[in-house]
User: Fold this.
Amino acid sequence: MNRAYHGAKDQILNIVLAYDDEDDRLFFQEAIEEIEIRTRLLMFHNGQELMDYLAKEDTVLPDLIFLDLNMPVKTGMQCLKEIRGNPALRQVCIAIYSTSCSERDIEDTFVNGANIYLNKPNNFNKLRESIAKVLQINWQYHTSSLNKDNFLLRL
Amino acid sequence: MGIAHTLNGLGEVEIHRELSPEELEALADRLHHYGIQILGNPKMVLVQRIKDTIDRMLRNDNLRLYKISSYLSDQLEYSYAHLSNLFSEATHSSIENFVILRKVNYAKELIASGNHSLTEIAYRLNYSSVAHLSNQFKKTTGLTPTKFQRILQKRREHRIQQPL
Assistant:
């Protein structure tokens, strides 16, 4: 939900990350903290934790969910399908964050309703730049009534 | 809600008194239901006008050949430098980037409608060639227009197979 009373500087994007590797979660957190856009980040270790969180009644829906594909207990693909199958969650933007660059994985996630596919970059600076780009474009979609059905981004 | 206001004919509403934060919240909630957001701050109003003017320009064939910068400063009666600074400060993006994003977004709509060839779309959006359109599309979305089209097509088939 967006209410631009005061402009970009006062707005906070709610971001959720589900990723099973602890180091990667920390890198992600560090990268997102260095970006100019203000965010609030919540992190989960696997897909089931994420889905449990989203199902809770008092959960504020995130603006953007980053999902790893290969997670224990529940994979990113299963989460993606559940989220897109749930009318209450359908408006949430989903970014796949994965080491896989298989064209088939990429296309499959888009077809199943992902908005963004972010290949895990091989260094920290690139990670920060990529996340910044994702947030910037996501922000435009929030504030400019762009059609989310057409929101596909691959980085 | 009984709040005195005036319509000024530009699609804007002026409210006659200062609202309490609770009233503002309640009003925002009700308007949000209709897809309307409140722009409290004059700077944000101007930013919204910039966005609207760019949209109008892109969607009007007669305005296609204007330069964005001169059209914006003519229409909004501010120097382009002023508009440009304000926009960057408020939106995390330059006007130039926003124009590219909107053009690519318009191209997406036209591709999604399935009624236009890439040549037609390139011409309508004032790209010098299909290659130029495809390039900017790929740079902005990470996908070629053809791939984008295929994903949308597959999504549609997918939804028919698995009704929600």
The mean pLDDT of chain B is 84. The radius of gyration of chain B is 20 Å. The beta strands of chain B are 5-7, 13-15.
